[in-house]
Design goal:
Layout lengths: L1 H5 L2 H11 L5 E3 L14 E4 L6 E5 L20 E5 L4 E10 L9 E10 L21 E9 L12 E7 L7 E10 L1 H6 L4 E10 L4 E13 L1 H24 L1
Antiparallel strand pairs: 1-11, 2-5, 3-4, 4-11, 5-10, 6-9, 6-11, 7-8, 7-10
Length: 244
């Protein structure tokens, strides 16, 4: 710290730029654009379900041939599709950095194609399509890896990042979703967690498209630059206070 006090602001900026040519992000999720198919991902279907998650390309859904928007990034996306009721999940485990990070974000694009007349979210919450209660929804969660992939129990779901609810537009997207994960990462440093996309339909057809999944934090070198920038701002503030 004494060394920084002796250096001029210009010297501190020069040092930062010499070691950090640009602010970069450490990407945590792999193959978020699905250009390598389902590499890095696991998809599963509740027993008895019709359909699954498939790789989407072009402007028709993978099974039913329903018109859908083409993938917004690259040539492929992931999309649930079926010709009957079912529950489908797509997930990837990831490791939270073991050091504090100033920010963490999850971004993804979603297409919602609900062919029922509404969304239905039962209470208590469930992803079970075989229940007699109407269940027509999509959701995105951060979960414990010890949980059943189809669980929505409060002890298993650490954060709900997205969910369709009654009153939402029945067809929308691909739309971008941007979620702040900073508090979740701070509470789970070094832990392995799970990002899950889930869709259930027992009313009528439903396509849930996913693309451009990015989970990122600043790289350690970028955090050094941010720290130096903050130090410069603090020095300028102190000088102004002293001049007043």
């Amino acid at each position: 710290m004494k060394l920084f006090r002796r250096l001029s602001p210009g010297s501190l900026v020069a040092i930062a730029l010499a070691f950090v040519p640009s602010v970069r992000a450490q990407v945590i999720i792999t193959n978020g654009g699905f250009e390598a198919g389902f590499s890095g991902w696991t998809h599963a279907d509740q027993l008895g379900s019709n359909g699954s998650f498939f790789i989407q390309s072009g402007a028709t859904s993978p099974v039913s041939g329903t018109p859908v928007p083409p993938p917004p990034g690259g040539t492929q996306a992931a999309m649930s599709d079926s010709q009957g009721p079912g529950t489908h999940v797509l997930y990837q485990n990831f490791v939270v950095p073991s050091f504090p990070v100033p920010a963490a974000r999850l971004r993804f694009d979603t297409f919602i194609g609900n062919h029922a007349n509404a969304f239905f979210v039962p209470s208590p919450a469930t992803l079970d399509f075989s229940t007699p209660v109407l269940n027509q929804q999509a959701r995105v969660d951060i979960m414990s890896t010890a949980a059943d992939p189809f669980s929505v129990a409060a002890a298993d779901v650490l954060m709900n990042a997205f969910q369709t609810v009654p009153g939402n537009p029945l067809v929308s997207g691909y739309n971008n979703v941007d979620v702040d994960l900073s508090a979740l990462f701070a509470a789970n440093m070094g832990n392995t967690l799970r990002l899950r996309f889930a869709e259930v339909d027992n009313v009528f057809g439903f396509q849930f498209g996913v693309d451009n999944v990015v989970m990122a934090v600043p790289e350690p070198s970028s955090m050094v630059l941010c720290s130096i920038t903050g130090l410069l701002a603090w020095r300028r503030y102190k000088r102004r206070r002293a001049a007043d």
